[in-house]
Amino acid sequence: MRPRSTAARFALAATVPPVLLGVALLPLLAGCEKRTPGEALYRKHCAHCHGVDGAGNTPAYMGNQWANLLDDAWQSSSGDEYSIATVVREGIFAKMPANSKLSDDEIRLIVDWLYQLRAESQ
């Protein structure tokens, strides 16, 4: 049996009622709930090193204690919001790059998200 051509596949898909197509896509859209601005900024600027969940389980930083934002190490070194914002903005020499292009409001949103992320993990 010969495989169908691409045109035939599209023609077949076009005959599926839109309601059924929408129902079929619901499981794919389940994880696409709206993110807060802080989470979106964190994912864009921080998650590649710290992980989406903040645990630091990324290929480049797995096992690096500074990459894990869910343990108490980051709290003991810079526990107040101002200090955490400073680390986000200026980075840590040879450990974390600076994010100097972020505005103060964007950094505040990231810090707020970090506190929320930490609360959810406990």
Compact description:
55% of the residues lie in helices and 0% in strands. The chain has 122 residues and is an all-alpha fold. Helix 3 packs across helix 7 (104-121).
Fill in the keyword field for this structure:
122 residues, mainly alpha, Cytochrome Bc1 Complex, Chain D, domain 2, 0% strand
Structure in words:
- α3 (37-45) packs across α7 and α6 (81-90) packs across α7 (104-121).
- The longest helix has 18 residues, at 104-121.
- The model has no long low-confidence stretch (mean pLDDT 78).
- The protein has helices at 6-14, 18-29, 37-45, 47-50, 73-77, 81-90, 104-121.
- With 122 residues, it is mainly α.
- It has seven helices and no strands.
- It has a domain at 37-121: Cytochrome Bc1 Complex, Chain D, domain 2 (Orthogonal Bundle).
**Alpha carbon gyration radius:** 21 Å
- The CATH topology label of the domain at 37-121 is Cytochrome Bc1 Complex, Chain D, domain 2
In CATH terms, what is the architecture of the domain at 37-121?
Answer: Orthogonal Bundle
**Quick one: overall form?**
globular
How many DSSP E strands?
0
> Terminal Cα separation, in Å?
56 Å
Under CATH, the homologous superfamily of the domain at 37-121 reads Cytochrome c-like domain
Mean pLDDT: 78
**Beta-strand residue percentage:** under 5%
Structural class: mainly alpha
Total helical segments: 7
Percentage of helical residues?
A: 40-55%
Low-confidence stretches: none
> CATH class of the domain at 37-121, please?
Mainly Alpha
Major sheet summary line: none
What order do the helices and strands follow?
HHHHHHH
